[in-house]
Amino acid sequence: MEYTRELARFCHELDYGALPAEVSQRAKLCVLDYVANIYGSLQLDAVKGVVDFVREMGGPEAATALGCGFKTGIQSAAFINGTLAEAIEAQDGLRFGGNHPVCAVIPAALAIAESSRRDGKSFIAAVAAGYEVANRVSAAVHPFHTLSGFMPTGTCGTFGAAAAASKLMGQGYSGMLNSLGNAGYILPLTMAEEMLGGHTVKIVQGGQAASAGIMAAGLAGRGITGSPVVFEGSVMKGGFTQITMKQEPKPERLTDRLGEHFTIMDVYFKPFTACRHTHGSAQATLELMKEKSLKAADVESVAVFTYAIANLAVGKGMPDDGTFVSAQFSIPYVVAVCLLDGVLGPEQLTERRIADPEVLALAKRVTVQGDDALNKMYPDKTASRVEIALKDGTRLSRQVEIPKGDPRDTMTVEDISAKVLHFAGGRDKKKTGRIIDAILSLEKAKGVDELVAMI
Predict the structure, then answer these.
(1) 123: exposed, middle or buried (Cβ count in 10 Å: 0-12, 13-18, 19+)
(2) Domain count for the chain
(3) Cα–Cα distance list, 340 to 13, 51, 289, 344, 356 (Å)
(4) How high is the pLDDT of residue 146?
(5) What would the pLDDT profile of 33-47 be if each residue is shown by its tens digit?
(6) In a domain, 224, yes or no
């Protein structure tokens, strides 16, 4: 089976007019949600450091660094904008692949669409193609790619960025095929160790993937060739799915129902600024607080029960010298800050908040353990149960089996618009409203210039 060629041919031939209405709408919602992440991420000091460094490097004013007030080179803009998609950890994701396609695909597509003056329909089609590639490649290696030490947002996302860029560059089938082949050779390693260790370099994985994807497509446009079997590999056993996991891949997922089912419809959205594995715990905590008029001062201790992968990835406590990355991947921190603040947004990840002694002390009273019954529900359901012991002896319990944002309990246009307004902080609400309207009517735009200028 020529998986790489089939996927490349599909992406090359994909046209806006062939997109089902719900796919086009979903792509616009992904862009809308992306804007919320931009605004939320700009509140973090580490992000400001990345932006300042890239700006100091200089470059032609070809594409906009979103929300930053300047233009720079295409790859530099994609690097910044991919970092903005990733840093706040409220980005969209695919449960079946463990990846976050927005972080690479949309930044790459925006940079090329802006610099080459492509219209809204072309941009939407490129986003749909990019998501299809990023999601299908990650699904083919999930979950063993991550368990082998890689972060698919960076690795698999590069392929999606390359596909989106190639499409917007107007490359033919051979150009698309070479773009994917080139991407496999230059994609970033994105070690899971960085995330698990709480290191803040984790936030650049989307930016690096977006930048590398543009490079892959640009090289293809200059006649540089890449492997036409980059995904499945050959008898040499050097394909992407062969060398980046310790188990046998499932290459059939690369083309399963291709053209019949668009994987962008499987993408979830996040209401909270933390790893998706924490969301059941956060939602259960906030629901109990609202229903019982609960205050943090009433709480003696909290026990969280969850599935095995969540326990492994986010069950650890928050170290006293932890970073906002540590906080995003810690159920104890997430539950504690939800109890204290009644919300989990950008403000809960600022350097000042994660160092607050009150938050850290409460987090130490939150325990996490695996639960066999919940583990049996996975991966169909990412279930968690929160049991709160109050100082008066009362015990409260809430189990969430499908956290909000999952396609089975999706975030609506209104939900995502509210997220944009919340994450925008003190920005002008009327202007933010115009941005929302522009994105929701993106297919009518002659270009993305006005939109990126407003952001």
Answers:
(1) buried
(2) 2
(3) 51, 31, 10, 10, 11
(4) 92
(5) 999 999 999 999 999
(6) yes
Radius of gyration of the chain (CA): 21
Four-residue CA torsion sign, 202, 249, 185, 65: negative
- Segments forming the whole domain that contains residue 330: 276-400
* Residues 234, 360 within the same domain: no
CA 223 to CA 233: how far, in whole Å?
A: 21
Q: Cβ contacts of residue 161 below 8 Å, gap of 6+? A: 78, 104, 105, 107, 108, 109, 130, 134, 183, 209, 210, 212, 213, 214, 216
Whether 336 and 241 map to the same domain: the answer is: no
248 within some domain? yes
Hunting for tokens 């090289």 — which residue is that? Answer: 219
* 246: DSSP letter: S
Alpha-carbon span 248 to 243, nearest angstrom: 10
**263-302 confidence digits (pLDDT tens):** 999 999 999 999 999 999 999 999 999 999 999 999 999 9
- Same domain membership, residue 51 and residue 67: yes
DSSP letter assigned to residue 94:
B
Asked if the structure places residue 405 within a domain, the reply is no
**Distance set, CA 257 to CA 6, 10, 17, 164, 241 (Å):** 12, 12, 19, 20, 19
CATH number of the structural domain spanning residue 293 = 3.30.1330.120
* Cβ atoms within 10 Å of 395's Cβ, excluding its own: 10
- What DSSP designation does 245 have? -
Residue 174 has pLDDT above 90, yes or no: yes
Domain identity same for 104 and 7: yes
Residue 22 burial class via C-beta count within 10 angstroms: exposed 0-12, middle 13-18, buried 19 and up: exposed
Residues 261 and 280 in one domain: no
Distances (CA, A) of 28 to 102, 280, 281, 413, 429: 12, 26, 29, 10, 20
DSSP 278-326: GHHHHHHHHHHHHHHT--GGGEEEEEEEE-HHHHHHH-S---TT--HHH
Residue 417 inside a domain? The answer is no
Shared domain check, 292 and 160: no
Give the pLDDT of residue 138: 97
* Residue 210 and residue 83 share a domain: yes
For the question of whether the overall pTM of this predicted structure is more than 0.90, the answer is yes
Residue 224: pLDDT above 90? yes
Residues 265 and 306 grouped into a single domain: no
CB 173 within 8 A of CB 9: yes
**Which residues have CB under 8 Å from 42's CB, separation 6+?**
48, 67, 68, 84
> Which tokens is 289 given?
């607080």
Tell me which H or E stretch contains 439.
Answer: helix 429-440
- C-alpha to C-alpha distance for 302 and 325, rounded to whole angstroms: 22
Q: CATH number of the domain that 121 lies in? A: 1.10.4100.10
